[in-house]
Design goal:
- By secondary structure, this protein is an alpha+beta fold.
- It folds into two domains: about 70 residues, Beta-grasp domain (Ubiquitin-like (UB roll)), CATH 3.10.20.30; about 70 residues, DNA polymerase, domain 1 (Orthogonal Bundle).
- It is about 35% helix and about 15% strand.
- It has six helices and five strands, in the order ββαβββααααα.
- It has a five-stranded mixed sheet with strand order 2-1-5-3-4, sandwiched between helices.
- α3 crosses α6.
- About 40% of the residues are buried.
Length: about 160
């Protein structure tokens, strides 16, 4: 099947088999390797991308399901300079090996868009769909809180 997808504002077309996963299309045909594939069962969240502005597990979607739609991957997050989430993850040491980081960021950006002043409990709930084997999550919660304050213009 021939599909046409907008990825990070650029058109991408390709021939795919009906069973080709969206994660495989992104990585192998579009050449965007920032989207990681972890569990391949939708549990870890490493493969999270944004489809029409909402986070989705690209290992659970077929590429044909994205035909005619808009995708955003981690490569686009800092396209206009470092995003406050990226900066906060660095400043708060909220990443170690980095394998899960792209999935966290792609899940958290729409979360902060829709919930600009989240409580720690809301942040923890938003993190529930992404697994990290390195950090222990405390620094990630602190990073999300810091990024939310930056995005709101709260410098205090």
């Amino acid at each position: 099947m021939r599909i046409s997808v907008e990825i990070n504002g650029q058109p991408h077309e390709g021939d795919v088999e009906g069973r080709t996963l969206l994660s495989d299309f992104i990585r192998h045909q579009a050449g965007l390797t920032g989207t990681k594939v972890g569990c391949e069962h939708g549990v870890c969240g490493a493969c999270t991308v944004q489809l029409d502005g909402e986070p989705v597990r690209s290992c659970l979607m077929l590429a044909v399901q994205a035909n005619g739609r808009s995708l955003r991957t981690i490569e686009a997050l800092g396209e206009h300079g470092e995003h406050p989430l990226q900066r906060a993850f660095n400043q708060k040491h909220a990443l170690q090996c980095g394998f899960c980081t792209a999935g966290f960021l792609m899940s958290l950006e729409p979360f902060l868009r829709d919930n600009p002043e989240p409580s720690d409990e809301e942040i923890r709930e938003a993190l529930a769909g992404n697994l990290c084997r390195c950090t222990g999550y405390e620094a990630i919660v602190e990073a999300v809180d810091s990024a939310s304050r930056t995005l709101r213009g709260d410098h205090g």
